[in-house]
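Thread: adenosine-5'-triphosphate complex, take 2
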Amino acid sequence: MSGDRTDSVSVRAPAKINLDLSVGALGDDGFHPVSTVYHAVSVFDDVTVTPTGGGLELEVTGEHTDGVPLTPDNLVLRAAQLVARRGGVQAGARILLHKGIPVAAGMAGGSADAAAALVACDAAWRTGLDRAELLELAAQLGADVAFALVGGTAIGAGRGEQITPALARGQYHWVLALSEDGLSTPAVYAEFDRLTAGRALAEPRVGDEVMQALRSGDCVALGKALRNDLQPAAFSLRPDLSDLLEVGLEYGALGGVVSGSGPTLAFLVRDHEHALDLSVALTASGACEVVKRAHGPVHGARVGDLPRLT
Ligand code: ATP
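Output below.
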């Protein structure tokens, strides 16, 4: 059987930024416990799955394809394999991954792809996995995958995979300052370990200020409360990011923070107009080459319209 378009399922999954990222000491398991506030923003990847007679084929298109592996360790293929194993699926799939999320940017693009692939394969192969099963498979694929399934604004504990929705009000507008070169997450954590060596780190805990700002939907308070324990490590590896943060704040952002392990800087602004002003100012200043405007929170991975064939 070779799948046709009527069998295809397309799923869209969002990028995330971290409004707060509190990092604890390296555990015996080799991981840092975190407590974080995830926020899904309107930058998306799309995964389209068409069932076939057997085997998995992957094609990657879109704005951001450099650095995306086409090997079996691509998170899309790993996710498809987990669904096939769990569902006892004999069929294969042709998978198209369309990337709008920058790679190695601290925006969990690979995790969004994994979440989208879990949902798309489950629907295309009719394996009927329930929410709990999808979340369990997500946790096997990476710390941020569960959040990409859920979306919205949520607290992540453990390695980030234990998700509880946050009480949050309002829509927020962001200007994302992107870097040409990515930062490796393990390298940023290694730098964090170096910078914090010999210091006793507290249990990770999200700040009361950020939760209070979200509860009241107060963007000015949220701007002040943005925080990331990995930021000094990201700045140590990329001092230009520290300058860029200063520039964004000077140009009137309500706040700014490195997203995850960076190098993306997320600037909070008041509204769409403010986002346009800051984007123009940042690019004109020469401090940053590429900016993206986004809003959040947005939904997690869900079945959407098929992309138009061109
Ligand atoms: P992390 O999720 O590790 O914090 P990140 O959000 O900064 O990382 P990603 O875009 O997820 O960045 O990419 C991290 C790495 O994951 C890439 O450099 C790439 O080698 C690998 N990877 C595996 N599958 C994918 C995928 N589908 N898309 C992008 N990268 C992938």
